[in-house]
Amino acid sequence: MNTKYRFLFGLLLLGVIVLFILHNTLSTQARTIPRPQPSPTPEVLPNGWYRYTDKAAGYAISYPSTVRFSISRDAGLEFPKIRLFLPRSTGFANQVATITVYPNPERLLPEQFLLQNIYQRIYRGAMKLPSLPLQEIQSGQNMAYQVDLEPFLPALYIFHKDKVYFLALHMDMLSGTPPTLKAREMFFEIAATFTLLDKDNGR
């Protein structure tokens, strides 16, 4: 092989080696960069959690990277409904938490709102509504009203101005299995990150 062909072969071999090194380097970097779940405002926090913000609805919430996140538009709701599919490590494959924003234009008190809005939906057509097992708790920076009532175990209601933020952990709709203790712990940990964007400007 003459000198010219040796030179070209060496140059080609060098190019292949450089491309191989670049490919491995970029692939390694791509694997180490956090990938936020789909969200209108994806934000990766220093602790590795993701933060979802809905400016129109007036809130933000954070969730672990192991949680699968989805947004849906439900009929009759002004703002998107959020679903957080908890990981299998919490006990079951179908443990879901949701965040729903309900209008409260009359600014009803919690007991009034629950009886007129939520319980009427759950117990539609019932002869008698159940007693109201309502408990006021501190959830992160917010005062919330907790109700443990199937199929929500538990549910938190946060009242602010003309909106009610409904955070709920659901029973498994297929098996009817209540959420596990680990699922409840993760739910309350996520709920504690719930932040009102204009908390200082109203009730």
Structural commentary:
This protein is α+β, with helices and mostly antiparallel strands. The protein has 2 domains: about 1-35; about 45-125 and about 135-200, 3-Layer(aba) Sandwich (Protein Transport Mog1p, Chain A). Helices cover about 25% and strands about 30% of the residues. It is built from 3 helices and 11 strands. The protein has a 7-stranded antiparallel sheet with strand order 4-5-6-10-9-8-7, with helices on one face.
Structure described in brief:
The chain has helices at 3-32, 110-122, 181-191; strands spanning 43-44, 50-54, 59-63, 68-72, 81-85, 96-103, 135-139, 142-149, 152-160, 163-170, 195-196. By secondary structure, it is an alpha+beta fold.
Helix content: 25-40%
User: How are helices and strands ordered from N to C?
Assistant: HEEEEEEHEEEEHE
Q: State Rg.
A: 25 Å
Question: What is the 3D shape?
Answer: globular
Give the number of domains: 2
Low-confidence sequence ranges: 26-38
Tell me about the largest β-sheet.
Answer: 7 strands, antiparallel
Count of DSSP H/I helices? 3
Find the CATH topology of the largest domain: Protein Transport Mog1p, Chain A
- Would you identify the CATH architecture of the largest domain? 3-Layer(aba) Sandwich
Please write the CATH class name of the largest domain.
Answer: Alpha Beta
State the CATH superfamily name of the largest domain: Mog1/PsbP, alpha/beta/alpha sandwich
